[in-house]
Fold this sequence. Notes:
The structure is a homodimer.
Chain A: H1 3-15, H2 22-33, E1 38-40, H3 41-50, H4 57-70, E2 74-76, E3 84-86, E4 92-97, E5 102-107, E6 112-114, E7 123-136
Helix pairs in contact in A: 1-2, 2-3, 3-4
The structure holds a DNA duplex.
Amino acid sequence: MVHVKELSIETRLRDCGLRPTRQRIALADLLFAKGDRHLTVEELHEEAVDAGVPVSLATVYNTLHQFTEAGLVRVLAVEGSRTYFDTNISDHHHFFVEGDNEVLDIPVSSIEIGNLPEPPEGMEIAHVDVIIRLRAKKNR
Amino acid sequence: MVHVKELSIETRLRDCGLRPTRQRIALADLLFAKGDRHLTVEELHEEAVDAGVPVSLATVYNTLHQFTEAGLVRVLAVEGSRTYFDTNISDHHHFFVEGDNEVLDIPVSSIEIGNLPEPPEGMEIAHVDVIIRLRAKKNR
DNA sequence: CTTAGTGCAAAACATTTGCAAATGT
DNA sequence: ACATTTGCAAATGTTTTGCACTAAG
């Protein structure tokens, strides 16, 4: 049924030098089928298990790191304890809802950053992350 | 000798509802004496021990969290594993040197952010973090 | 004295790793 | 068949917690 999609994901994995194993295909499906997502390892693992793909937690960790190296996903540093992975690798920024620990995309076009400072000698800019931290507005 | 400074730190702590204990004073001294700093718990602990204040790691954790709640320091989310604490609580941004895991301040004045998107319904902006990730420039 | 703070060791998490068994090519 | 990948369980690294002991007011 979802065979067309799986084929293309298999190709993508192969292009990255990753063997398209059952687990990797299933994880990639979950990651990319539903559009842009922000997930912890734990969340993805649970989704996979719920979807009937009993992959181990260690494999989810390993797979997400492989995907990161392959440039399929990106690591998000928003909160100390858990690592978030972002399936949207295009240039964009994030809302982070404190308390809920929820991450939302901000289209890059909607933010203008000017006057970026010169990086120190011998350094170049790898990436600019903007995180807008949100809290519930207290209604009084 | 450094008594004037210690007195004022004692007052600051007291104002935050924190008893100025030996350990807290020593840690606050290390944090604030040398200007703006970006430290992990481990680093601060080592500094304290080196300075002849044999505080325990757990106390450094507890103290930094208390300082954070009191608004004396700020948590920096730059890198997944370790938590950085920033002694500069004014509005500013950061360079993060990947590989070195080093954090550098960027004066806020030098970056202009325009077109900030509207926060979702019922939310307000708590803080805007800009992290410019740097990598060593490859000289070719 | 009384209460809050500290240190230690153990617990709790998140993440990584080693190795035998399973899978992909 | 052969190399890679997986799963498990154990190891690691970081942070938190429980509780007896110590220090501050």
